Amino acid sequence: MGFRVKDALKWPNNTVVYDFVLPDPAKMSDSKRATWEDLQLVTLIENCMARWEYFVNQYSDPNSIKVLPHIRFVRRLSPDDPCKLIDLTQTGQSGVGDNGYDTARKFTLNWETNPESAQSIPHELGHILGLTHENNRNTPGIAYQAGEIPRMCPQGDMATRSAKATRDVCVEFGAYDIWSIMHYPATLRIDDFDMYFNTTKKNPDPKEGPRNAQGWTWNCTDEELIAWMKDHPDPVYPKTTAFNYPSLADIKANDWYPSAGDIATLRNFYPVKQT
Questions:
Q1: Cα dihedral across residues 26, 30, 34, 35: positive or negative
Q2: Domain interval for residue 191
């Protein structure tokens, strides 16, 4: 269902405290200001926070003042309060620092040079909550058996070392989840549908194609992967012909979904508490 950090890295009181560091639009170039105004990043990020809360908390008791929800995002009240800073003045590589509770490192987005990086906001918020890349559970060379869940396995030294380092500090919860919004690197994006779901077309180069992206490869054939996806839809994520990698248009429309496994993992990690 999910892959998460250990209990020591959960946010106290089930609450992610955050704040923004914002650029000054008056000091931006015209093109940069146009991008900034189009993205509306503060609204976009807080809408994604609210959507995470909606899915994870919908079966708790939001009307009771005696019960804390599973998760909540709260903007800090005082500049002295420790928090996860979302620094939108930094436009280098996107990232959140360490998974789970981490107030030392900032959440940054490379929105200026790559506006599409904003599509990663739900995924990055999953990291902040404590989820990590689902496929890092796997070791190289796991054999596929008919009827089992297909797995994306590391190949090559860098991916293998990265997966092992994650396994050393994280906890598996439930079965492997190919529908997780934390599954990475993304494969079978919308532009690749025809390649995989039209049987007259084949992957033109398995070494370069999206199934074997960035040092990872599926342990089954295209046909076995497609058949499993069609036969095992997720109860929450609505697609069976694409992995869970929302586009920027999806994020702007607030039309993205965690998987049922993502939700179950966070509910397990952050149980409802009596106040």
A1: negative
A2: 134-231
Tens place of pLDDT per residue across the chain (275 aa): 899 999 999 999 999 999 999 999 999 999 999 999 999 999 999 999 999 999 999 855 555 555 678 999 999 999 999 999 999 997 777 888 889 999 999 999 999 989 999 999 999 999 999 999 999 999 998 999 988 999 998 888 888 888 999 999 999 999 999 999 999 865 543 334 344 443 333 444 443 334 444 678 889 888 888 889 999 999 999 988 788 889 999 999 999 999 999 999 999 999 987 66
Contact in structure between 91 and 81 (CB atoms under 8 Å) = no
Residues 146 and 199 in one domain: yes
What long-range pairs does 5-9 form, CB within 8 A, spacing at least 24? 5/99, 5/100, 5/130, 5/132, 5/169, 5/170, 5/171, 6/169, 6/170, 6/171, 7/269, 9/98, 9/99, 9/100, 9/101, 9/102, 9/130
CATH number for position 19: 3.40.390
Residue 215 identity: G
Q: What token pair was written down for 65?
A: 């003042």
